[in-house]
Amino acid sequence: MTPAITLYAVLVFLHVLAIVIWVGGMFVMHTAVRPSAVQLLEPPQRLPLMTAILGRFFKWVAWAVLVTLATGVAMIALAGGIRPLHGSVYWMFGVGVVMMLIYGHIRFAPFPRLQRAVAAKDWPAAARNLDLIRVMVGVNLAFGVVTIMIATLGRAFF
Q: What are the pLDDT digits (tens) for 54-63?
């Protein structure tokens, strides 16, 4: 194997690992953690717990976003730049950028409001912000599934 092929393989591994952490984490949060917390806990217990969980998760997502972007750009560069790429790569990159922007908005707008509301024990405001985060994570999860579909099926359909 040439060094370029080995580097490309490592980049693909890191890229997929970052996506698994990000999209898989959204899936678990959206389908298991939050519904269970809603079922079992009242707002004074649930909202601080969800805020703490999201704070930890968002730190991992920040790294996943950086790794995804860096490895994606590096793989494009190794493939010869932006011109000779298959159309699915453009779609993947575009949807990925939208996902990154949604994450950035969640992280720097409703999440700090959630944290402030929880600190103030303003449960209605905290619940509104957590619900907004839930909706936006649901949208991002759908985009994540679409991106995975493009990555795996793109060459067959584009």
A: 999 999 999 9
Helix, strand, coil shares of the chain, percent, nearest 5, are: 90, 0, 10
What are the boundaries of each domain within the chain?
3-157
**CA angle at residue 74 from 73 to 80, to 5 degrees?**
95
- The model's confidence at residue 17, banded by pLDDT at 50, 70 and 90, is very high
Burial class of residue 77 in the structure, from the number of CB atoms within 10 Å of its CB (0-12 exposed, 13-18 middle, 19+ buried)? exposed
The closest of 137, 146, 149, 144 to 29, measured between CA atoms, is 137
Alpha carbon of 94 to those of 51, 59, 72, 103: distances in Å?
Answer: 29, 23, 11, 14
Torsion of CA 155, 91, 82, 98, to 10 degrees: -150
The predicted model scores a pTM of: 0.93
Interatomic CA distance for residues 120 and 126, integer angstroms: 9
CA distance to 63, 95, 149, per residue, from 40 (Å) = 31, 35, 34
